[in-house]
């Protein structure tokens, strides 16, 4: 069995709009330079405060523009240090708390290294505005904010604060309160309901619980924004009958069991998210029909009454955004006919069968359409049915579409249709869709050749994924017109010919995968010239010849390459000892949400990302966002000979090395012990001799090793990572002894040793080892642990983030 790798791509449809509200408020607190003279003691206190932190992370000028003083007293009244450059503990006696006249203090986005929130803030009792978000503060609040009686704006969001709901008594002026994304637990403190001036209240993403929403919310009748999402609220969704100013209401991800009818009194409501509740009955959309300003309605993850989705439901809502993902819908919602204003619609993850009606594409404002993971089979109307639609993002993934693909809309920019059964050739009309940025037709049954025009004249194309179709012919010339292309995956087709030299014009190319085709060519050393190439996969083709450059023609040195897979070709020759010199892997760019994206697609609503999954002997490692710095090499199944280069030890970031099924000779390089990140090492089926280097037992992440079928001898190094391997990893070497093999190295009268695990436990053992590895990596490592999950990895990777809620994955 061999290691294979699988790369799959996915859209991330992210409907984002609630965040705009808060940022616009913060912007009003612009801070100007210290135009007026500040008293020396105030400047001194600021400088002392500054010196409490590690200033290396800061650029010199950061402090200058960040404060202002009262023009008569010289006291500092405003301080803005949200630059992210303060790093260190914020001490209880910090000089910050000497600045007692501060009225406005912004110190968000710093790194206070898990300090607790110092009580010194309660001395700053003239504060009107205090923002402390995203600072890494931990633990319980040790003080009350009650001293800050002037406070009107308090933002503690995105820290790690714990304990019960903070005491905010006496803050009669408070109009803005953001406690979101912490770990506050327990019930709401009644003092909250005395804050009569609140117009913005965000308590989302905490562990607040209540068997019902307290009726006292009705006291807060100035509220315009209310979010209780991602908590543990239960009972009925209240009618909030006094909150006539409310325009945004987010209650998603709670455990509400029903909706109180008079929710229709919220006449100013514009945005409503009730997704993912535990409502046991189907929601009737008529409930919302009196909300005449409602623009956004998200009901995903609840069941919806089928009658209210039909065309004669009579519902007229002026919606712009509608989320009905995972609502157990079985028929196309014909009431969309009445929604002329609809721009973004998500009906993914339902059970809708049959064809998409023709009228749908005539909705005049349609922009983003997500139909993924249903059972659609086709389109009503002609092959031209889509062309005049205004849709720019269309997702058809994971349906049963069959037959030829209709010509795509003129305005299309992002198109994904993977995992369907489309047949016929890729429509040529796609070539003159000049906004097309992402095209994913993978896992279909397209035949014919890749349209020459597509890669040559499409100037905006950034991602092309045609994996697993039945495409023939050679890879066309590309990037003649602009060079934005970053990702090309044409793996698992029937492509022939050579790699086109025009690839060199694709200066943005990061990812090239042509695996499992019939390409016959020499190793493309010339791709070295691509400055951004990170992943190159040529496996299972008919490449041949040497993979080391002829003498005098420079070093191998693909500078930025992380992943090089050339297995199962016909490569020959040996590798010089300096083969891996100068291979400097740089780190992947990680997005704010921790994922790796192959492109910088700054559309406000979506990302197109990729996962790189590595599979070794039934182990499956999901490389999602985990390692920003790693490398893998797979040269297996070729005819490489000679020694394994010592320079392999220079690749510190290597996590997997597969040189199996070649004709390597000589010793296992000692330098492998220096590749400290190594998790998988396969040297089996070569002609290696000598002993297994002792140093390998130090490789603490090593989860899989095989040196089977070589000519190795001597004692197997007795580290736990190695002796825990199955016997089969060492078999076929006449001279090896020691655990896990049964041959003892000390002759037959040696003391009995611990018996090795039985063969049948093999799979489970590997899995356990991988768990150990996962712990070694700390948080964030996602591991798929079984063969079943390898198969599952071909399932949807849809990620829908709606209204700033946490990522929710549906597989
Ligand atoms: C400091 O300045 C450099 C270049 O001007 C910039 O790349 C870097 O991000 C800045 N660092 C901070 C912490 O602002
Ligand atoms: C001082 O500031 C106030 C507003 O903060 C302004 O009205 C006043 O004109 C200023 N005085 C001087 C002398 O600049
Ligand atoms: C704060 O207290 C620590 C001891 O707890 C002391 O070393 C430090 O000098 C004090 N800093 C200031 C600014 O007073
Ligand atoms: C409130 O502020 C005063 C000084 O203004 C201080 O003495 C007192 O300790 C503060 N109270 C609390 C609860 O922090
Ligand atoms: C509330 O504020 C007033 C002054 O505005 C003060 O006298 C009183 O002590 C405060 N109460 C608490 C509990 O801090
Ligand atoms: C509703 O708001 C009014 C003021 O607009 C207030 O007098 C009344 O007490 C509130 N009702 C409830 C139940 O809080
Ligand atoms: C969801 O509702 C069912 C009854 O409809 C109940 O048994 C279950 O405990 C509820 N789950 C949660 C998480 O509230
Ligand atoms: C699309 O629009 C063009 C121009 O408005 C029109 O000629 C054509 O018939 C339309 N096609 C379809 C299928 O509606
Ligand atoms: C797609 O093509 C493959 C091989 O050509 C075939 O086995 C499979 O049945 C086809 N699938 C459909 C849905 O036509
Ligand atoms: C590898 O090359 C040899 C001759 O160089 C040829 O006989 C053999 O068929 C090739 N194998 C593959 C899989 O292309
Ligand atoms: C995306 O936005 C970031 C900052 O908002 C910017 O630095 C970057 O250049 C943008 N990328 C593109 C491709 O527009
Ligand atoms: C391992 O690396 C160290 C320096 O990082 C080097 O001194 C040593 O020679 C290397 N060992 C081997 C066996 O290459």
TrEMBL record:
Residues 1-24 form the signal peptide. Keywords: Cell membrane, Glycoprotein, Leucine-rich repeat, Membrane, Receptor, Repeat, Signal, Transmembrane, Transmembrane helix. It is found in: Cell membrane. Pfam families: LRR_1 (PF00560), LRR_8 (PF13855). Its main location: membrane. It comes from the Eukaryota. It is a single-pass type I membrane protein. The keyword Transmembrane applies. One of its GO terms (cellular component) is plasma membrane. SMART domains: LRR_SD22, LRR_TYP. The keyword Transmembrane helix applies. Belongs to the RLP family. PANTHER family: LEUCINE-RICH REPEAT RECEPTOR PROTEIN KINASE EMS1-LIKE-RELATED (PTHR48061), LEUCINE-RICH REPEAT-CONTAINING N-TERMINAL PLANT-TYPE DOMAIN-CONTAINING PROTEIN (PTHR48061:SF46). This is Leucine-rich repeat-containing N-terminal plant-type domain-containing protein. It comes from Brassica oleracea var. oleracea.
């Amino acid at each position: 069995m061999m290691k294979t790798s699988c790369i799959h791509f996915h859209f991330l449809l992210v409907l984002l709009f609630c965040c705009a509200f808060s940022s616009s408020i913060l912007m009003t607190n612009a801070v100007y330079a210290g135009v007026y003279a500040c008293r020396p003691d105030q400047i001194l206190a600021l400088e002392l405060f500054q010196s409490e932190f590690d200033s290396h992370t800061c650029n010199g000028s950061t402090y200058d523009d960040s404060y202002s003083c009262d023009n008569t007293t010289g006291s500092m009244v405003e301080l803005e240090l949200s630059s992210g450059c303060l790093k260190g503990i914020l001490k209880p006696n910090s000089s910050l708390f000497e600045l007692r006249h501060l009225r406005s203090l912004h110190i968000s986005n710093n790194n206070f290294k898990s300090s607790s929130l110092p009580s010194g803030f309660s001395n700053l009792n003239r504060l009107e505005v205090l923002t402390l978000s995203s600072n890494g503060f931990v633990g319980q609040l040790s003080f009350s904010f009650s001293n800050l009686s002037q406070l009107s704006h308090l933002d503690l969001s995105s820290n790690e604060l714990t304990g019960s709901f903070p005491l905010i008594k006496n803050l009669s002026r408070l109009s803005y309160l953001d406690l979101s994304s912490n770990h506050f637990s327990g019930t709401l403190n009644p003092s909250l309901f005395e804050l009569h001036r609140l117009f913005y209240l965000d308590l989302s993403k905490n562990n607040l619980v209540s068997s019902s929403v307290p009726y006292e919310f009705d006291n807060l009748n100035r509220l315009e924004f209310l979010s209780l999402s991602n908590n543990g609220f239960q009972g009925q969704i209240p009618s909030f009958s006094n909150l006539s100013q409310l325009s945004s209401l987010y209650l998603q991800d709670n455990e509400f069991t029903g909706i109180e009818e008079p929710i229709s009194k919220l006449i100013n409501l514009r945005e409503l998210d009730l997704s993912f509740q535990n409502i046991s009955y189907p929601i009737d959309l008529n409930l919302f029909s009196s909300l005449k300003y409602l623009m956004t309605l998200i009901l995903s993850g609840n069941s919806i009454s089928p009658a209210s989705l039909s065309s004669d439901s009579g519902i007229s809502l002026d919606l712009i955004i509608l989320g009905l993902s995972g609502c157990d819908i079985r028929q196309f919602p014909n009431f969309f006919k009445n929604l002329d204003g609809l721009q973004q619609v998500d009906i993914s993850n339902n059970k809708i069968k049959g064809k998409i009606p023709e009228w749908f594409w005539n909705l005049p404002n349609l922009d983003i359409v997500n139909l993924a993971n249903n059972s659609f089979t086709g389109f009503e109307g002609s092959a031209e049915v889509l062309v005049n639609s205004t849709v720019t993002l269309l997702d058809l993934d994971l349906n049963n579409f069959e037959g030829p693909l209709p010509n795509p809309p003129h305005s299309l920019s992002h198109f994904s249709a993977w995992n369907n059964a489309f047949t016929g050739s890729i429509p040529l009309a796609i070539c003159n869709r000049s906004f097309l940025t992402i095209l994913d037709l993978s896992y279909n049954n397209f035949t014919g050749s890749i349209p020459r025009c597509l890669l040559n004249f499409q100037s905006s194309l950034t991602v092309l994924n045609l994996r697993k179709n039945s495409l023939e012919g050679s890879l066309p010339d590309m990037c003649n017109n602009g060079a934005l292309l970053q990702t090309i995956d044409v793996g698992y087709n029937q492509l022939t010919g050579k790699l086109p030299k025009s690839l060199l014009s694709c200066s943005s190319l990061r990812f090239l995968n042509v695996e499992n085709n019939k390409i016959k060519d020499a190793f493309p050393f010339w791709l070295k010239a691509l400055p951004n190439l990170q992943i190159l996969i040529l496996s299972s083709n008919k490449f041949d010849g040497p993979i080391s450059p002829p003498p005098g023609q420079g070093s191998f040195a693909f500078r930025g390459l992380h992943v090089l897979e050339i297995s199962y070709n016909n490569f020959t020759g040996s590798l010089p000892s300096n083969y891996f010199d100068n291979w400097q892997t740089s780190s992947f760019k990680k997005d704010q949400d921790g994922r790796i994206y192959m492109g910088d697609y700054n559309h406000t609503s979506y990302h197109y990302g990729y996962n790189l999954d590595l599979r070794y002997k039934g182990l499956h490692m999901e490389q999602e966002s985990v390692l920003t710095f790693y490398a893998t090499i797979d040269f297996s199944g070729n005819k490489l000979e000679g020694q394994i280069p010592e320079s392999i030890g220079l690749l510190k970031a290597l996590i997997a090395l597969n040189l199996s099924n070649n004709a390597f000779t000589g010793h296992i390089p000692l330098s492998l012990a220096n590749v400290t990140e190594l998790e998988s090492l396969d040297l089996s089926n070569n002609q290696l001799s000598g002993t297994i280097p002792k140093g390998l037992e130090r490789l603490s992440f090593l989860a899989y090793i095989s040196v089977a079928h070589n000519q190795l001898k001597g004692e197997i190094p007795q580290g736990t990572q190695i002796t825990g391997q199955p016997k089969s990893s060492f078999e076929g070497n006449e001279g090896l002894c020691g655990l896990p093999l049964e041959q003892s190295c000390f002759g037959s009268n040696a003391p009995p040793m611990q018996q090795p695990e039985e063969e049948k436990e093999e799979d489970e053992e590997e899995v356990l080892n991988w768990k150990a590895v996962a712990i070694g990596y700390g948080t964030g490592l996602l591991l798929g642990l079984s063969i079943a999950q390898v198969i599952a990895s071909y399932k949807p990777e849809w990620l829908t983030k709606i209204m700033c809620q946490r990522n929710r994955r549906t597989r």
